[in-house]
Design goal:
binds adenosine-5'-diphosphate; four-stranded antiparallel β-sheet; alpha+beta; single chain; eight-stranded antiparallel β-sheet; binds magnesium ion
Length: 352
């Protein structure tokens, strides 16, 4: 692990910095290197990187044409997911649900299974992750950058809660005309997972996907061991507080530096406490979650940020959701769940 020469890849919107093998720097789309190809694009309101090994499952060298066709298929998968989940695309089921008054829709399988997953995580996190928070989250839109009145926040909170939706088989009915779904805290994790499911059926031996602060890996990276992922310093866009090593599954990061606006010196970020309707103030600046399932990693990073360290550790001990996490607190302290070993996380400075 120690023979990596850190070569950093980050884009402004990324919470996570990827560090890969020492011999190859990250290249732009179409640029060549010996071990893999990177494909970078923008979808689902975020920067996406696919890193595909040139090596095929049978040891052969894969052609650029083949790798490009795999990347194109990934782009199609993302566009399908976006078409279902986006709260902004007028063609999506979620848009139809959110904008209608007394809506009843027949949802496609993707949406039904996503709602089931989201609801399970909502329940297991005691509502800290809540996909029905749309009426509240839209009040805190960093693009509008206006602090809503307390009355508006409390009024919007009345329209949240899973009891506002009735789901029978594939029919979804909205029981409260003002309830809105917001999959912002789970969509990229779902997408990362769908991409990996597809990629594992291709001839590509190993690789990774990165969507915003969500990273997933597939296959085994033979010579260089684990993937090394830098966890951003909340106070310093170019710095890291440490590195996580990923062999399998997903890492998602939520932080208060990700999407926010400031009014009169107060920072209003985009992760909302479903109890208060205000940006969560749990003593956590960021949390990186490792889980074997992409949706869980993503939704949990949001939930643990809301819960704070103590309650997150209680959730961990309950054991209904399998995850590991690295927290950075308001004081800059790094706290890890008991299952985070030295092989999984290396704070900066420790062995430098
Ligand atoms: P990012 O989208 O920046 O990767 P997260 O994964 O933490 O960060 O998701 C934050 C998004 O999730 C918000 O922009 C909002 O759309 C939605 N959200 C905010 N608070 C909650 C919450 N408590 N539960 C579920 N979704 C939330
Ligand atoms: Mg998340």
């Amino acid at each position: 692990m120690k023979n990596y020469i850190p070569r950093r890849f980050f884009s402004a919107a990324l919470a996570v910095i990827l560090l890969m093998s020492s011999v190859i720097s990250l290249s732009g789309c179409g640029k060549k290197n010996e071990e893999y190809r990177d494909f970078n694009f923008f979808a689902m309101d975020t920067y996406i990187t696919l890193r595909l090994a040139v090596k095929g499952s049978d040891g052969s060298v894969l052609s650029d044409d083949y790798l490009s066709s795999v990347a194109n298929e990934c782009a199609d998968i993302l566009s399908d997911i976006e078409g279902t989940l986006s709260a902004h695309s007028e063609k999506s089921d979620v848009y139809a649900l959110n904008s209608g008054v007394d809506v009843m829709i027949t949802a496609d399988d993707t949406l039904v299974s996503l709602l089931e997953t989201a609801d399970k995580i909502r329940e297991l996190t005691g509502g800290a992750y809540d996909y029905t928070l749309g009426a509240v989250t839209e009040l805190w839109d960093p693009k509008t950058a206006v602090v809503p009145s307390k009355a508006d926040v409390l009024a919007a909170l009345e329209h949240t809660g899973s009891d506002k939706l009735m789901i029978i088989n594939r029919t979804i009915r909205k029981l409260d005309s003002k309830t809105k779904i917001d999959f912002g805290g789970i969509g990229k994790g779902i997408a990362a997972q769908s991409l990996l499911e597809y990629l594992s059926t291709t001839d590509v031996e190993y690789g990774l996907v990165s969507l915003g602060g969500n990273i997933g890996v597939f296959g085994e990276k033979p010579e260089y061991g684990n993937y090394k992922i830098g966890i951003r310093d909340p106070d310093n866009a170019g710095g890291v507080i440490g590195y996580m090593y990923l062999n399998s599954g997903f890492i998602s990061v939520s932080g208060d530096y990700e999407r926010y606006f400031e009014v009169d010196g107060v920072r209003y970020h985009h992760i909302i406490d479903p109890v208060t309707g205000y940006p969560a103030d749990s003593g956590v600046r960021s949390v990186a979650v490792h889980a074997l399932n992409g949706a869980s990693a993503d939704a949990l990073s949001t939930a643990l940020f809301v819960l704070g360290v103590e309650k997150s550790l209680e959730l961990y001990e309950e054991g209904n959701l399998k995850f590991e996490a690295v927290f950075v607190t308001d004081e800059g302290e790094i706290i890890t769940t008991p299952g985070i070993t030295e092989e999984m996380f290396e704070p900066v400075g420790k062995n430098d």
